[in-house]
Specification:
Spore Coat Polysaccharide Biosynthesis Protein SpsA, Chain A; two-stranded antiparallel sheet; 19% strand
């Protein structure tokens, strides 16, 4: 609720429903698990979730990242793994949720997974768009707000951007909460680097990404228009 660019963002009205409800309903449609919970430091969001019958848990307001918040939930709700979906993604695609969780289902040795998709040319220089490079097994080598890899020679692969979904097993998300914020994490302001700096591999799957996340009131209006058009198409 304390977003500096858009105070009250999670509860902004999108065609008669708060934004967090759109995200919750997308998670339901993915049908990955019946255990879906909204984790928030804000009582207003707890109250809103009760109004649309979504389980919600009040967490500390002091977490430096979303994953730290998930770690608190994991202490109270032990499960095999967790899928972290951001509350400002009302257009999140259920296919992306499934793709993010899939590596943990398919390989018990994978501790953490996330998503990437090809970067549009106009996004490569944008520091708000996080880029990722991987090894030949699709494990992340590094995430950066800077364009990577640097094109000293013609690129052999596309530039990939990170889609901010995370799946992690219980043990590794609990370990994360015991580690102090790491140097690269603090430099780039990217929580996934804390995992990598502590030796955790992140398996990257391919996804589509949502058409638009919401960081500003103007983006919320753009999302309303996209939702209206989608509803008209379904009629």
């Amino acid at each position: 609720m304390g977003s500096t660019r858009f105070p009250g963002k999670p509860l902004t009205d999108l065609l008669g429903k708060p934004m967090v409800q759109w995200v919750y309903e997308a998670a339901l449609r993915a049908n990955i698990s019946p255990n879906i919970v909204v984790a928030t430091p804000d009582q207003e969001i707890i109250d809103a979730c009760q109004a649309f019958n979504a389980p919600a848990i009040l967490t500390s307001p002091d977490h430096p990242s979303g994953t730290d918040r998930i770690a608190e939930v994991a202490q109270k709700m032990p499960h095999d793994f967790y899928l972290n979906v951001q509350g400002d993604e009302p257009l999140i695609q259920t296919e992306d949720l499934i793709a993010c969780a899939a590596p943990l289902f398919s390989d018990p040795n994978i501790q953490m997974a996330s998503l990437m998709t090809e970067c549009n040319e106009n996004e490569i220089e944008n520091p708000a768009v996080v880029k990722v490079v991987t090894d030949l097994q699709s494990n992340a080598l590094y995430f950066s707000r800077h364009p990577i890899p640097y094109p000293r020679n013609p690129r052999q692969t596309p530039v990939f951007k990170h889609i901010g979904l995370y799946a992690y097993r219980h043990a590794v998300v609990q370990d994360f909460a015991t580690w102090p914020q790491s140097p690269l994490e603090q430099s780039e302001s990217l929580e996934q680097l804390r995992f990598m700096e502590n030796g955790v591999r992140i398996r990257m799957a391919h996804g589509n990404g949502s058409a638009l996340a919401v960081d500003t009131p103007e983006q919320a209006e753009a999302v309303r228009e996209l939702l209206r058009k989608a509803q008209e198409t379904e009629r």
